[in-house]
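step 3/5: co-fold with protoporphyrin IX containing FE
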Amino acid sequence: MTRVSHVELVDPSVYEAGGVPHEHLTALREHAPVHRHHGDPEAEAPPFWAVTRHADVVHVSRHPEVFSSYERLALFEEPAPEQLALQRMMMLNQDPPEHTGKRSIVNRGFTPRAIGALEEHVRDICRDLVGEVAATLEAGGEADFVRDVAAPLPLYVICELLGAPVEDRDKIFHWSNTLIGGSDPELQSSPEAGDTAAAELYAYAAGLAEARRAEPREDIITRLLQPDADGNELTGNEFELFVMLLSVAGNETTRNAASGGMLALFEHPEQWARLRADRALVRTAVDEIVRWVTPVNLFRRTAIRDTELGGERIAAGDKVVVFYASANRDERVFDDPFAFDVGREPNPHLGFGGGGPHFCLGAHLARLELSVLFETLLDTLPNIELSGNVRRLRSSFINGIKGMPVRQRPAFH
Ligand code: HEM
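step 4/5: write tokens
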């Protein structure tokens, strides 16, 4: 095996400084596609298998009977027992058959039809957010794309999905942000603040469930609380945990797809010009943005039996990490993978997962949010441009942007 120089693949500071270490991942895809990564011995980081090719990421994702989401679920330190028990009640950390029943219950709320019904609300939210930025810039003020557009959009949409009243948005925003502070010291909350936010969001979700059970409405939450055709339903606990999962899984991901997509369009002005000339391209642009940005960089699984992958022997108990960001630049699958092309089609990217049982529940919703957002920007702020430094998130899990100042290009350009 050719040796590939060592880069800390899961060191958040690598990502903060320069984004995804693509050069290194490309070398791994070529020379060591299933690579035993030895972490920093000083940090006592345990080793894991880094899976970087598209075909292998798909294979791991589609074989939960070998690559479990439930066993040894943390990438590094195991959580405390009570935390672990709670996390294992979330479907993200379950395997079939437990996962299958839960997933089929919540799938009913996320079909293209159910999500399509939200379109007008998403359009109103985008119009308000982008309109406010336009007005601020018009008045000579400053705007930040993450703070003013990309962060509030998915949060407001989730509030809409939950049927939460508008006056509750701010507190739900605060709880979600506290929960997802992640590894970035600037955003990180204390463990106590995280616990408090989780408890408050949990209690809020319990209140929502109670209100809908007493007075059902024509909304997604009411549907999720009702038993499905086979009589399966979410227990109280499961519903509350699902609301928490939504606020974690649906927020930061979409936020960073929106801000990373905007940045890609700033860096490729000819692609923005193509979109301005042909709105029909927004549909393919959205998937290209998810491929290019890959908001969720990686996910971990644990082998629960001995197996072989990419010519390597993997032992039961080994951690296996799939790198979606690498799979999405795999030259075996994508022509010219390092070109950002808003018209790319087909685009079998793995930004929403490798197609197994955990494939992103919110993919239709994310596509809707992103396409309406970019349509609104093209209509309202066609001359938007970057006006300062982009600050990246200190995280190897979420490819994120914390701050991105924007302005309008003067009309004479
Ligand atoms: C799972 C990406 C938006 C809810 C996932 C997974 C990825 C992902 C990579 C794991 C797939 C796997 O392990 O095979 C993204 C990206 C998004 C996005 C890139 C935005 C561009 C959303 C939204 C929601 C959502 C808007 C809901 C409001 C979920 C849930 C899961 C999930 C609940 C767990 C599904 C399961 O375990 O069965 N997403 N996601 N996501 N996503 Fe998303």
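step 5/5: annotate
Residues 288 and 341 are 7 Å apart (CA to CA).
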